[in-house]
Amino acid sequence: MSRITLPRRILKTLLAKQQSEGAGATVRRSIGTPSLRSLNPFLMLDHFSVSPGAGFPDHPHRGQETITYLLTGGMDHEDFAGNRGTLNPGDLQFMTAGKGIMHAEMPRQNPDGSPNIGLQLWVDLPKELKYCEPRYRDLKAEEIPTVITEDGKVKIKVISGKSYGVESLKDLAYTPVVFYDVEVQPGGKIEQEVPQGWQGFAYILEGADVTFSDGQQEEKKVSQWHNVVFGNGKEEDGVVARVEETETKPGRFVLVAGQMMDQPVVQYGPFVLNSQEEVYQAFVDYQSHTNGFERAKGWRSEIGKSMVH
């Protein structure tokens, strides 16, 4: 791997504040808020915590993809086309809503009552794929290659992309995205290339503060639950991050970047299209069970029925 010659600038950092979402779930949202409406091609990033009895019962989508990364616990999913499955710790699901999907995402009932925790990232779809057939791609924890740097101080799960010579599986999302889960021990440092011109961010999951290079000269220390938004200048070729030797635990974060799109974004709730008219049409189609939502008529998920009232 070539050395990073010019680390990406930091455009902003923001705290993901806790809020309610779904039925009894809580999320820390950093993209898709008044502070950061969107980050082309990303529409939303939620760090969710869902306790037993809460969840995301039957709801529709059109026009975007979602990437769900489960960190602890378990999540069941089910849709109106008969697709169903379970995410366990370390698993991911790439869901393309396309012209229309109706599904439910519900937590497992953990014996100790502990919450189910993970990340969900919404990614825009290119205009020409807004009305594609919906699909899923699952990525199991054991399928994700892991690389450890020579000094043993950095561990990287290569979910999508390439890191230190190790490459991920292919064809998980239509929109090109790189996605790394990074753990840096005290005294460790990562230099990760990111495709030029792509928009990227790092979200601190847990542990020690992480110090990111801010361009060539400066550094910025960032703590848990903060999102770091990077610049995408043509000369900026990667992200450099370290954890100070004096820390007592590692710092863990996800580093994500995506290919930017030159298209308008009009979003209303779960519908993400390119014009106000298309959003109106999505509501009409959903309510009349047409143009992709035919199977929504009378459908109720089995897992959604498990909601505790």
TrEMBL record:
<comment type="similarity">
    <text>Belongs to the pirin family.</text>
</comment>
<dbReference type="InterPro" id="IPR014710">
    <property type="entry name" value="RmlC-like_jellyroll"/>
</dbReference>
<feature type="binding site">
    <location>
        <position position="103"/>
    </location>
    <ligand>
        <name>Fe cation</name>
    </ligand>
</feature>
<dbReference type="GO" id="GO:0046872">
    <property type="term" value="F:metal ion binding"/>
</dbReference>
<dbReference type="Pfam" id="PF02678">
    <property type="entry name" value="Pirin"/>
</dbReference>
<keyword id="KW-0479">Metal-binding</keyword>
<protein>
    <submittedName>
        <fullName>Pirin</fullName>
    </submittedName>
</protein>
<feature type="binding site">
    <location>
        <position position="59"/>
    </location>
    <ligand>
        <name>Fe cation</name>
    </ligand>
</feature>
<keyword id="KW-0408">Iron</keyword>
<feature type="binding site">
    <location>
        <position position="61"/>
    </location>
    <ligand>
        <name>Fe cation</name>
    </ligand>
</feature>
<dbReference type="InterPro" id="IPR011051">
    <property type="entry name" value="RmlC_Cupin_sf"/>
</dbReference>
<dbReference type="InterPro" id="IPR012093">
    <property type="entry name" value="Pirin"/>
</dbReference>
<dbReference type="Pfam" id="PF05726">
    <property type="entry name" value="Pirin_C"/>
</dbReference>
<dbReference type="InterPro" id="IPR003829">
    <property type="entry name" value="Pirin_N_dom"/>
</dbReference>
<dbReference type="InterPro" id="IPR008778">
    <property type="entry name" value="Pirin_C_dom"/>
</dbReference>
<feature type="binding site">
    <location>
        <position position="105"/>
    </location>
    <ligand>
        <name>Fe cation</name>
    </ligand>
</feature>
<feature type="domain" description="Pirin C-terminal">
    <location>
        <begin position="180"/>
        <end position="291"/>
    </location>
</feature>
<feature type="domain" description="Pirin N-terminal">
    <location>
        <begin position="26"/>
        <end position="123"/>
    </location>
</feature>
